[in-house]
Amino acid sequence: MSNNISRRDLFKVSGATAVGISLSSLLAACGGSSSDSAISGKTLKVGLMGPYSGDVAQYGLAVRNGAKLYFKQFNKKGGTSTGKKISLIVQDEKGDATEAVNVYQKMAESNVVAVLGDVTSTPSIAVAQEAVKDNMPLVSASATAADFIKYGKNAFRACYTDPYQGKLMADFAAKKGYKTLCTIYNSGGDYEKGVNDAFVKEAKKKGLKIATQESYSAGDVDFKAQLANIIAKKPDAVLSPNYYQDDGKIVTQARQLGYTGVFLGADGWANIVGGDEDYASGKDLEGCFYDTSFVSANTDKSVQQFIKDYKAEYNADPTNFCALGYDAAMILCDAINKVEKAGKAKTYKDYKQAVIDAIAKGTVKGVTGTIKYEGTGDPVKSTLIIGFKDGKEYIETTM
Amino acid sequence: MEEDMATKGKPIISTGSPKGSKKRKTISTGKRYIINTVLTVLVIVIGQMMIDNGSISRYQGSVLEQVGIYIIMAVSLNIATGYLGQLPLGHAGFMSVGGYSCAIFIMRMMGPMHVTMYDFMTGTPATTLLFVCGLIFGGVCAAICGLIIGIPALRLKGDYLAIITLGFAEIIRVVMLNIDSVVGFQLTGGAKGLTGIPSYTNFTNTFVVVAISLFLIHTMMKSRHGRAILAIRDNEIAAEATGVNTTYYKTLAFVVSAFFAGVGGGLYAGCIGVMAPAKFGFMKSIEILVMVVLGGMGSMLGSVISATFLTILPEALRAFADYRMVVYAIVLILVMIFRPQGLLGDYDFSMGNFLEKIINGEFPWKKKQAEEVEADE
């Protein structure tokens, strides 16, 4: 083992490294300024955080792309009415609550006027609990967990909650006249379980029969046992409120087992056809429904413009998460613009409060519908029910 | 931090100073404890002062808290890995048991004790009591789990023990996920996690707990029990032949390891404010094991240094954005190539011995001369 470093050499190397790291962190620490100057300069800093690596990176990256696109357009148009531009501080939190809290505190330290984040549920809640201490305006594109907005009036989301979607799909099922329902969901996911529980509750209230609720664990790929149980109950419709990778497999396997009925889904279904991979064929999905706030089949002018811009920027089709990121950025920029226009907030502290008030009062016409807030951080917006016909998505109804 | 675990390589019973040389000056055990206590208190007080006047920012303070938590986690795993010589892979399981039970205990007791979330920021006697009781409760819960798993698992060795502890951590994770629907009321919050945990940790109380934990583990390892544990590591058959109750000491080490993991988990819950079962999977156990192996198995100082290093490294590399995880991995690989025994091997630092050497003028660069002189005689 002659190539092994001796302890003395190790101390020399580690000493040099420690000096290097501490010097660089000192340099990084320099250049900080007092908090009130954060709002007087030519640029306003906004934090953008999400998981850009790790298990849930695809959602973080989608939100980041959407949000970055809007900020770019906003700055191109000249920024706020007072001519201030938005500069972004983008940080990765790997989908981990610990990292998310660190990232948030780093952002708060660099005196950002608002934070756009987080993306997934647990880190979002951790960030919300921290952000309330600073009264930091916090807009999440996709934190669907109900608790996210519970801690203070500073947190807003652009998406709707898990329970809301569950309730909506149950109402839709009742409207469609389905009598016997079954569900299959990932019991280890807060999103899946949240939608499922609300669906079951609302369905029971509407007098629909929930024949069985089958669960599976994260990472399962074979759902045939659960599906066999479900098919034995002869349901009119099956709720599968999971992410599209699982939903695709569930639908495909159910068709293989001979189930021909309807599947209902939530916004995790977005991208189930025509996404990065084909998880289910259009033929298998015939007659299924899911709810979402954004779909490229929407013929609305602003939606089509967004799709065009997104394609030009990233050379890819935008997903639901991209659109939500875009809208979250829009909500934030709209509020900052209003605060700048009013010009009343002179201190950093007042500025943050003013941004929060502006978001709470504002109405934004985004690409996922018209978003406004009525006293809570939950948006009031319309929801699209998407159906499949001849292998293509179409808008069944707006609820 | 004061560790002198130099039990290996040195005779336990000193044969006195070599004849001819003058008497070596020593520092008594009592004085050693006083010196170390004063230094520890000084470090914590200076740290807290730097946080108060803003020279350590809130972000850095929060990272330091996590450093403290991972120090406890690494040192506690070091008991089972480094000192006992086993390879458990379920440390994150004990961490989550401790974290959940501590957080639930504190949250449930806040009502009857009339403590609000904001009291934890200012700090009152009631919050201190809750903090201490909560951590001990978390530790005890984890220790009970350690006992339950330890008795059957420690009959196995090597890979088999790794697999059974790995399975056990998975069981804990699944229990945390599903216990709500079994007991029929809100306990762990299931998949959505336990939220709204008051932030009952800060720099001072985290590092006081770190200091106490290190002290307790250190004294245990220096005692009769610690030597028995080391004997089992070095040769189990020989230890048994000399009358060491191997089953008892193996279980003891395992339970103590689990207890401190629970304490670390309790601090973690307060620091982050959210507990979700998904965060305590296999990778968390590996993360902690990496700290122990990197620092050197059986070296407490090694665990402390590598826990500090590996917690700060990803944060320090944040400026490199997407490449930081690559750098993190490269650092690990380089260390394992050039220092396969870990950064410090089984070396441990002792403040007392260090001072003694200074008093006696025994500096490393003088060592050679001294040897030459001895050879001449």
Descriptive overview:
- Chain A has 399 residues and is of the alpha/beta class.
- Chain A has two domains: 205 residues, Rossmann fold; 131 residues, Rossmann fold (3-Layer(aba) Sandwich), CATH 3.40.50.
- Chain A has a seven-stranded mixed beta sheet, with helices on both faces. In chain A, strands 2-1-3-4-5 form a five-stranded parallel beta sheet, with helices on both faces. A three-stranded antiparallel beta sheet of chain A has the order 11-12-13.
- In chain A, a hairpin with a 5-residue loop joins strand 12 and strand 13.
- The relative contact order of chain B is 0.18.
- Chain B is mainly alpha-helical.
- Chain B has 15 helices and no strands.
- The radius of gyration of chain B is 22 Å and the shape is globular.
- Chains A and B meet through helix 1, strand 2, helix 3, helix 4 and helix 6 of A and helix 2, helix 6 and helix 12 of B.
Mean pLDDT of chain B: 85
Task: Say what oligomer this is.
Answer: heterodimer
Proportion of β residues of chain B? under 5%
Largest interface: A-B, 47 and 41 residues
* Counted beta strands of chain B: 0
Structural class of chain A: alpha/beta
CATH topology of the largest domain in chain A: Rossmann fold
Any idea what the radius of gyration of chain A is? 23 Å
Helix-strand pattern of chain A: HEHEHEHEEHEHEHEHEEHHHEEEEE
- Strand fraction of chain A equals 15-25%
Unreliable residue stretches of chain A? none
Number of helices of chain A: 11
Main sheet of chain A: which strands, in order across?
7-6-8-9-10-14-15
Radius of gyration of chain B: 22 Å
CATH first level of the domain at 30-281 in chain B: Mainly Alpha
Output the helix-strand order of chain B: HHHHHHHHHHHHHHH
End-to-end C-alpha gap of chain B:
39 Å
Range of helix content of chain B? 55-70%
Keywords:
heterodimer; A: 399 residues; alpha/beta; Rossmann fold; seven-stranded mixed beta sheet; five-stranded parallel beta sheet; 19% strand; globular; B: 377 residues; mainly alpha; ABC transporter involved in vitamin B12 uptake, BtuC; 15 helices; 69% helix; 0% strand
